[in-house]
Model the fold of this input.
Amino acid sequence: MEFIGLGLSIGIGTLGEALVVKQAIDSLARQPEMASTFRTFMIVGAAIVETGIIYSFILGLLIWVKLG
Done:
């Protein structure tokens, strides 16, 4: 059961990161003169989402080692 929960958390986190990038690209299409600002916010947003994915992956490895 633990692995199913970890897989879901990684999958949902990846979906969240994809939505951040999608919104940044949509914003750049509307206002290309704000490219540096959007790029900065996109990188920060993606980094915040990515930390949750990395924590889930590490937790999955720890559970796998414990059960193995």
Summary: The chain has two helices and no strands. The radius of gyration is 16 Å. The first helix runs from residue 2 to 30. The CA atoms of residues 13 and 51 lie 9 Å apart.
